[in-house]
Amino acid sequence: MQAQATEDATNRIFNSTSLYVLANRSASAGHIFRSLAGSLQFDGGVGSYCYASSFDTVDDYLFEQSLLEELEFSELSNTACEPSTDIFLVRGSDLTSDIVAASVAIDETEVVVEITKDEKQQQTDRLDYMSKAITDDVLDGSKVGFGLIALRSGNGEICGVVPDYPDAHLNVLGTSLRLLEIYGVNGGNFAAVMSNPNEAFRLLQRGSCSAIYASATELAELVLAGKSSGYEMDFAPVWVSKKQITEAIDSIEAAFQLQANQEQSQEDRQRLEAEALKTAMEQAEVQQTLLRDEFGLRFAALNDEVQTAVQEVIDFSNAILPLNDGYEAAYERLTVLDPTTGISPFDQIIQDMHQRSAEGWEIIQTDLDKLDYGQAEFNGREVEAVVTELHVESKNRVVGKYEDYCARIALLNDEVFDVWRRITVLDCTDSYALDRWRLENGFQSKWIVTVE
Fold first, then answer.
1. What are the residues whose beta carbons fall under 8 Å from the beta carbon of 258, sequence distance 6 or more?
2. How far, CA to CA in Å, does 219 sit from each of 156, 201, 306, 347?
């Protein structure tokens, strides 16, 4: 039948029976552009394509071959047709369809490939010839390698007679997926793998697969058995040589070896990091011991001073409650009061002790543990800094329990002016609060050595 013609806005003539690969040359195109050298390229090697018409499996195969031959890309994604689509696959008869019109103006496209009706027929004839040639060579015993036969209808699944390295065979078949689709075959996987053709032929009869991949000798046997059993089977125009399988096996083994090397390298790195950490911790322990030998007595003396002050506060808290007569006078007699404000920096502890006393807690023992010692900054000067941890062990006869009250006390010892500064009472469970205090005061420890 004579082809009908469609004329676009730029007076280009399109053949209604041809298949077209059109490049989107509009400003809306997502990735495709023309380089200085004049070739079509994709940003980052990545682009998109869409089907603006319905196509058969032969069309898909021809489109794939055309795209691979005419364009360079690392990935082309199949998307819905829209203004940002890079490549449109369309029949000449559908150029004026709503799908195309809603996506791009024809005069803003460029023909990358035209596949005429005659060219498609030539390709179909070529594939039929290849199939017949493979059939003849297999049956006369001159073919070496692996091929595939398929029923003219079925589920498209493949039974593979490949006892060794089935993944290598699939990798090679994977390069011809579109071609296999023409014959209704899903080449992406084997439905079953076996070592003898008899099992494959049994599964074919059970409908578990409609194609069999096997060696030339086994295929000849299968074709003859199929004919005698009334099964119409055709050879797909795909042939896999032993060299291709060997190369695929080498590639798989190289990938496994690379992965093993990477895992070994990772394991080695982890072992070296663990050894480095162990060495650093040992060095830190030695350095920390030296620091504690040097500053231990000074820290102990300051800790005793803090304990004396805290013990005065705790004794006061147990001796008198806020509602008792004489409370304010007793409070004002505390030696820990800030002379400028008349307020104790340990008021939080006083309030906690009053609350616990009201609840019936009786103090058994009070301890002040040395937590950290070092230097900090105050008004541009270096001063001593101390962090201690108060523990008040108590019992409660009402609930029949023992409980430990804990508070951290951080302060600066300004020896030049003989005064404590920035006394801060912190919750023992709030480690971030202590970190903030250290940061705000430029604290550097001379008691604890950490490993980064």
1. none
2. 17, 10, 93, 94
Check pLDDT > 50 for residue 115.
yes
Mean pLDDT along residues 82-100: 92
Written as one letter, the residue type at 137 is D
pLDDT band at 12 (very low <50, low <70, confident <90, very high): low
What's the whole-number mean pLDDT along residues 407-412?
95
pLDDT at 362 over 60: yes
Report the CATH number of the 124-240 domain. 3.40.190
DSSP-assigned beta bridge partners for residue 193: 160
Give the separation between CA 14 and CA 93, rounded to whole angstroms. 9
> Tokens 């992406």 belong to which residue?
188
Residue 228 pLDDT greater than 50, yes or no: yes
Tokens 């024809």 -> residue: 106
- Tell me the three-class secondary structure of the chain, residue by residue: CCCCEEECCCCCEEECCCEEEEEECCCCCCCEEECCCCCEEEHHHEEEEEECCCCCHHHHHHHHHHHHHHCCCCEEEECCCCCCCCEEEEEHHHCCCHHHHCCCCHHHEEEEEEECHHHHHHHHHHHHHHHHHHHHHHHCCCCCCEEEEEECCCCCCEEEECCCCHHHHHHHHHHHHHHHHHCCCCCCCEEEEECCHHHHHHHHHCCCCCEEEEEHHHHHHHHHHHHHHCCCEEEEEEEECHHHHHHHHHHHHHHHHHHHHHHHHHHHHHHHHHHHHHHHHHHHHHHHHHHHHHHHHHHHHHHHHHHHHHHHHHHHHHHCCCCCCCHHHHHHCCCCCCCCCCCCCCHHHHHHHHHHHHCCEEEEEEEEEEEEEEEEEECCEEEEEEEEEEEEEEEECCCCEEEEEEEEEEEEEECCCCEEEEEEEEECCCHHHHHHHHHHCCCEECCCCCCC
| Mean pLDDT value across the chain | 90
What residue ranges do the domains of the chain occupy?
Answer: 5-115, 124-240, 289-445
Q: Are strands 158-161 and 190-194 parallel, antiparallel or unpaired?
A: parallel
